[in-house]
Write a structure and sequence with these properties.
The chain is α+β, with helices and mostly antiparallel strands and about 180 residues long. The protein contains four helices and six strands.
Length: about 180
Amino acid sequence: MRRSANKTLIGAFVASGIVLACVAVILLGGGSFAGTKPTALAYFDDSVSGLDIGAPVKFRGVTIGKVAQVLLRTAEQATGDYSVPVVMEFAPDLLTRRGLDQALLDQKGLRGSIEKGLRAKLQQQSVITGVLYVELDYLPDTPARLHDTKGVNAEIPTLPSNLGALTKAVSQTLDQ
């Protein structure tokens, strides 16, 4: 004798499978569907060769975000300014889990951090490959040069990278 299939049970099984698949996509996607993440700009005078989209943004060696875009120019830059704007995206959950200050999440808090000496710098992940990342740190005795003339975007002032400073010093020495 043959039994007929229970259509309600099959439907419940398929529906629960779809729900589980959606939950897995959201969790494994890093919560990127949860909304917008705070961003900030940094204008680098050095070459950004080796800085790719997705490169880490670290605060004193601890990853707190990633590079979202490397642009050629923004509308807010002055006419003679040829610095390269880099858009950094911060992960609020990484800041919270690692006990870091939440000041990077809003423009007012970011301004306070900049006044305390927050600066961005390009660093090498590997000397062999030349892959770069963005390092953030508090360096209060350094100048804060801003490139966004209109103050529209959240901007973190930059410093020359160690390699860029070394290259410039060698070039000046050879020129003399």
